Design the sequence.
């Protein structure tokens, strides 16, 4: 007959440890989270042999009194949660009161801690769950925790540990996440007596990002200016789309000081880059979100990486908005980009860089934006303006009816005139600069649509006019069309119109109604607008000029390239000359 027995405290802790402590990196995570919660300004971590032999975390945080130090090792001892009501508003990283006893039950554990105004500190030692009596000890203010011989008393767990180098890599990854998250804290990692990183505290997040990602990407960082709406604050930085990668390894999202992974956030990031990312690529981004802790549930998973937002669409829309502002600081561009008046000699186009604005944050996006203008300008101007060596193309021919061939500085360039035109029409529509050419109908057409479509048509009438439609309500669900885009045949008008209505409806549901809906709309109009048009070589110069006036000349509205280059080196390689 099996006998039901209450587990000993040590056994219960070891069982709990299975949940919280999977490997050395989980110990490090719990310990540094405690240090951050304790208000540390500097956290030093030392590991030996992948953390299996030794992990030591030292902080200069608030420390613990002798009583608290002893109590912190009892299960469910926490200073961070008093009642279940508190669970709704967790701002500290730890709150389960499980970590320290769990760790101490599966290792040789020593903690020393001293509060700022205490004359001496306390040392508590626990060997595989067996606590020694606390004793007074001299030590600096703050807490130092040493964990030796992890899993020495649970061989089944020890067997599952990977190679020391793998465990070390997990620890380093964990620490990098925390260090990125908290630039205001100085971090040091020593691995087998060698310093892996030593990051001084900084008030500037970009300094920390640069320290962790390298100078090259650091220089290209685009700041996401502080965005605040309904209690949700977003700050951070992104890299331009040419740094995008497969997978989300370059996306770091911190929510209320905690690294999180959330598909809503990464999808929103992609959406914000829409039109400039190729299929399957993810933008590189570092975002810090702060929000009312009652609006997000962080208690979903023992390792606390997953979160659940109350209002997913608020988060999504805010991220899209914040990042779009960073990528195209709307008015800012208009202010900064003032192509000087030129007397043109159109044969020699030159790309000039936009002068960088020093004024405020968030404008880095502008600096690499090429502005097209034609050379030759008043003498006075010349000195100030550095001529940027941008792409200079000579049209040399056509390949089938699909591509124009260009002789570029760095090799052969193929232009897809239809993709280029799509980009141009798309941006003109977005800028509301110029509508699509329209053809009047001798006999207006009456279209009977469903009520929802008529509603959308009427609410967005001005967009449809930009697209070349002239329409008015004819009462009930009937719309009278007296003009259609010149690229369209009368018989196609209905299908195209309802297609556009759908593109608006699709995106209206997503929230940031106006712009996003219009972007989808503009992309559709642009695509349809170039469908059947042919091109002549003589038009290519003009087309290139227009294309390079666009914000994103190198891709069409759906992210496919407009220009493809085959470099001289590549050609030489192919001909066996290098
Ligand atoms: P939790 O973090 O979930 O509260 P832990 O077992 O990780 O539970 O820690 C228990 C308690 O010990 C904490 O609530 C905190 O009061 C105290 N503590 C742990 N680490 C530190 C530290 N580095 N500095 C100050 N206090 C600490
Ligand atoms: Mg904790």
Sequence:
């Amino acid at each position: 007959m099996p006998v039901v027995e209450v587990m000993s405290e040590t056994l219960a802790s070891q069982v709990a440890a299975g949940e919280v402590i999977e490997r050395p990196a989980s110990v490090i995570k719990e310990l540094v989270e405690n240090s951050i919660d304790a208000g540390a300004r500097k956290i030093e971590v030392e590991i030996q042999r992948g953390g299996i032999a030794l992990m030591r975390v030292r902080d200069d945080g608030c420390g613990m009194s002798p009583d608290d130090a002893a109590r912190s090792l009892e299960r469910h001892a926490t200073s961070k949660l008093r009642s279940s009501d508190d669970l709704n508003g967790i701002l500290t990283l730890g709150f389960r009161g499980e970590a320290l006893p769990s760790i101490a039950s599966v290792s040789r554990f020593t903690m020393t801690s001293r509060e700022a105004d205490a004359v001496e500190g306390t040392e508590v030692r626990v060997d595989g769950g067996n606590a020694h009596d606390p004793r007074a000890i001299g030590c600096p203010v703050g807490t130092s925790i040493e964990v030796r011989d992890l899993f020495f008393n649970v061989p089944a767990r020890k067997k599952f540990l990977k190679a020391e180098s793998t465990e070390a890599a997990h620890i380093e990854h964990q620490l990098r996440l925390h260090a990125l998250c908290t630039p205001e804290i100085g971090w040091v990692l020593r691995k087998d007596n060698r310093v892996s990183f030593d990051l001084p505290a900084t008030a500037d997040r970009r300094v920390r990002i640069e320290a962790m990602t390298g100078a090259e990407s650091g220089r290209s960082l685009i700041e996401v200016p502080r965005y605040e709406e309904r209690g949700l604050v977003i700050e951070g930085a992104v890299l331009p789309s040419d740094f995008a990668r497969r997978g989300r390894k370059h996306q770091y999202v911190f929510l209320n000081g905690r690294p999180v992974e959330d598909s809503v956030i990464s999808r929103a990031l992609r959406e914000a880059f829409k039109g400039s990312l190729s299929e399957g690529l993810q933008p590189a981004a570092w975002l810090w979100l702060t929000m009312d802790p009652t609006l997000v549930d962080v208690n979903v998973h023992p390792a606390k990486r997953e979160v659940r937002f109350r209002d997913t669409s608020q988060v999504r829309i805010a991220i899209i908005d914040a990042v779009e502002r960073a990528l195209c600081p709307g008015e800012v561009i208009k202010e900064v980009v003032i192509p000087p008046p030129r007397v043109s000699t159109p044969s020699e186009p030159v790309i000039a860089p936009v002068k960088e604005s020093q004024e405020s944050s968030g404008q880095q996006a502008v600096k690499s934006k090429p502005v097209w203008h034609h050379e030759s300008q008043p003498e006075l101007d010349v000195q100030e303006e550095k001529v940027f060596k941008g792409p200079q193309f000579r049209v040399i021919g056509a390949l089938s009816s699909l591509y124009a061939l260009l002789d570029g500085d760095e090799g052969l360039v193929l232009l897809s005139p239809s993709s280029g035109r799509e980009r141009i029409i798309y941006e003109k529509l977005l800028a509301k600069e110029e509508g699509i050419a329209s053809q009047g109908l001798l006999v207006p057409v009456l279209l009977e649509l469903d009520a929802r479509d008529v509603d959308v048509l009427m609410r967005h009438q001005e967009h449809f006019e930009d697209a070349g439609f002239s329409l008015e309500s004819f009462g009930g669900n009937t719309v009278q069309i007296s003009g259609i885009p010149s690229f369209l045949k009368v018989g196609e008008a209905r299908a195209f119109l309802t297609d556009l209505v759908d593109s608006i409806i699709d995106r209206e549901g997503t929230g940031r109604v106006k712009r996003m809906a219009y972007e989808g709309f503009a992309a559709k109009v642009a695509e349809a607008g170039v469908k059947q048009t042919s091109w002549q070589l003589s038009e290519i110069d003009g087309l290139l000029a227009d294309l390079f006036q666009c914000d994103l000349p190198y891709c069409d509205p759906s992210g496919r390239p407009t220009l493809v280059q085959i470099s001289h080196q590549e050609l030489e390689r192919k001909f066996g000359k290098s």
Notes: The chain has four domains: 9-201, 206-335, 356-430+533-574, 438-485+488-531. Residues 411 and 571 are 8 Å apart (CA to CA).
